[in-house]
Design goal:
5 strands; globular; alpha/beta
């Protein structure tokens, strides 16, 4: 049984399938959806002072767009789904795990980044850290290529 699902998003293509899967699960269980975007404080702090404010603003805008994608996907799937959005700043993996604990989530859904060669079985570093450290079950969803015969739309 799922009452609350957190969708961690960065707005990238690799997350879109995770959003669709999380929204589908939420609709099936009549669960709340919490969409979370984390502004990576390390990325902001590592930029030169003269562009730091511009970068933070651009990342905030990107976050709002990413959260809008989750809200739009939920509305398209089931107009009655409750979607709560949140932007946090910090290190992504601990922020995702902390937010999931804060809202008493039953699951966290997030995308992975595809890898090639020997590393193709590894997931993205943020997703991997969340899987390893989050006390709540984490659903990682791999984006399929257009050529993959398992590719379907939900």
């Amino acid at each position: 049984m799922f009452d609350t699902i957190v969708v961690a998003t960065d707005g990238s293509d690799s997350v879109r399938r995770a959003v669709d899967v999380a929204v589908d699960v939420a609709a099936r269980f009549d669960a709340e959806v919490h969409a979370l975007y984390v502004v990576d404080s390390g990325e902001v702090e590592s930029t030169p002072d003269e562009v730091r404010d511009d970068l933070r603003e651009a990342l905030d805008d990107r976050g709002e767009d990413a959260l809008d994608q989750v809200t739009d996907a939920a509305t398209a799937r089931d107009a009655t789904l409750d979607v709560t959005t949140e932007v946090r700043e910090g290190r992504p993996a601990p922020e995702i795990a902390g937010y999931a604990r804060d809202v008493d989530a039953d699951a966290v859904a997030m995308g992975t980044r595809g890898r090639h060669g020997e590393n193709r079985f590894l997931i993205g570093s943020v997703a991997e850290r969340v899987v390893r450290t989050c006390p709540i079950p984490v659903l990682t969803v791999r984006q399929l290529t257009d050529e993959d015969p398992r590719r379907t739309t939900i």
